[in-house]
Specification:
This protein is 18% helix and 49% strand. With 274 residues, the protein is of the alpha+beta class. It has one domain. The strands form 2 sheets. Strands 1, 2, 3, 4, 5, 6, 7, 8, 12, 13, 14, 15, 16 and 17 form a 14-stranded antiparallel sheet that branches. A 3-stranded mixed sheet has the order 9-10-11. The radius of gyration is 19 Å and the shape is globular. The two termini are 34 Å apart.
C-alpha cells in the first residue's frame, strides 16, 4: 500500500500538468467540431423535420489515453428536449483522475424553430470541480450565466445556439437539406465564427459497419491543426467519427461503438460493437 501511495505521489502531478489538459482537449474536440459544422446551416429555418432522438457511445483515444463519450438526445415534455454529452476517462488514467465532463442543454420548439433554453457544464475530473452555466433569452435579449467563476452577460444573437444545442440544429438542417449559411454559437463566454471545408461522399468504416458520411473539417493554418467530424445520413447525421490532427498526424479520435434510435419503431434494439 505504501508503494502504491508513493507511485501516486510521483505520478499525480504529471497527470495534473500533462494528462488532464489532454483529457480536456478531447472534450473540446467534440465541442469544436460541433461548433464548426454549426457555421454551415441556418438554424432559423422552421423545424420541418422531427428532432432525431438517439443515444450513442464513442471510444475515445488521445495517444496512450483512453476514454468514453456518450451523446444522448431525449424528449422533455410535449415540445421540449434535453441533450447531454458526457466524457469519462478509462484505463490507467482512472488510477489518478476520476469523474466526468458532462454538458447538458434544454431546448424547445418555439414558433416552429429550435432554440436553447440553457446550457450547463460540470467537470468533476478537475480539482476543484469546474462549472459553467448559461441562460438564453433570460432576461430577453441576453445570455447570462457564469464561466470560470466570472459573471457572463452578453447580447443574444438571433437564432443563436450553445456548443451542443448547435449539434441538434445541424442534424435537423442536414436532414432537411437546409442551405449552408450560419449559426451563431456561444462558447467560452463569447460568440464564435469559424472557417470550414466540406467533403461529401466519404465512406467510413466503423465497428458497426460502413457508413456514407459528410465530412466537415476546420483547419488552423497557424498551428497546423485540423478537426473533422463525419456525419452519417443513415443515422440522421449523427457523427460516427471525430478526428483531431496536428501536422497531418492523427492525435485524437472518437469512434462510434453503440447507437440506438429512440424514436424509430423499425430500430427498437441498439446496434453495438461490444
Amino acid at each position: 500500500m505504501t508503494f502504491i501511495l508513493w507511485i501516486r505521489a510521483i505520478v499525480t502531478p504529471i497527470v495534473n500538468v500533462v494528462i488532464y489538459p489532454k483529457v480536456r482537449s478531447v472534450s473540446d474536440l467534440a465541442g469544436r467540431c460541433i461548433i464548426l459544422i454549426s457555421m454551415m446551416f441556418l438554424s432559423g429555418a422552421a423545424c420541418a423535420q422531427p428532432v432525431p432522438l438517439f443515444s450513442a457511445t464513442y471510444k475515445v483515444s488521445y495517444g496512450i489515453l483512453r476514454g468514453e463519450m456518450t451523446l444522448d438526445l431525449r424528449r422533455n415534455g410535449d415540445s421540449g428536449y434535453i441533450y447531454e454529452t458526457s466524457l469519462s476517462p478509462r484505463g490507467i488514467v482512472t488510477m489518478f483522475r476520476r469523474g466526468s465532463i458532462v454538458e447538458t442543454t434544454s431546448l424547445e420548439i418555439e414558433d416552429g424553430k429550435l432554440r436553447p433554453i440553457d446550457y450547463r457544464s460540470t467537470d468533476t475530473i478537475a480539482d476543484p470541480t469546474r462549472n459553467t452555466e448559461y441562460l438564453f433569452d433570460t432576461p430577453p435579449g441576453r445570455v447570462t450565466g457564469v464561466y470560470k467563476e466570472r459573471t457572463v452577460d452578453e447580447p443574444m444573437q438571433p437564432n443563436g445556439h450553445n456548443r451542443i444545442s448547435a449539434h441538434v440544429a445541424v442534424m435537423l438542417a442536414m436532414n432537411s437539406g437546409a442551405s449552408m449559411t450560419g449559426i451563431p454559437v456561444f462558447d467560452r463566454a463569447r460568440w464564435r465564427d469559424f472557417e470550414f471545408e466540406v467533403f461529401p461522399d466519404q465512406t467510413i468504416k466503423t465497428k458497426l459497419g460502413e457508413f456514407e458520411t459528410v465530412e466537415i473539417r476546420y483547419s488552423s493554418t497557424k498551428k497546423n491543426k485540423s478537426w473533422s467530424l463525419h456525419c452519417a445520413e443513415a443515422l440522421d447525421y449523427a457523427p460516427v467519427m471525430i478526428v483531431f490532427r496536428e501536422d497531418d498526424d492523427v492525435k485524437s479520435k472518437a469512434q462510434l461503438i453503440t447507437y440506438q434510435s429512440l424514436d424509430d419503431p423499425d430500430q427498437p434494439q441498439p446496434i453495438s460493437s461490444r
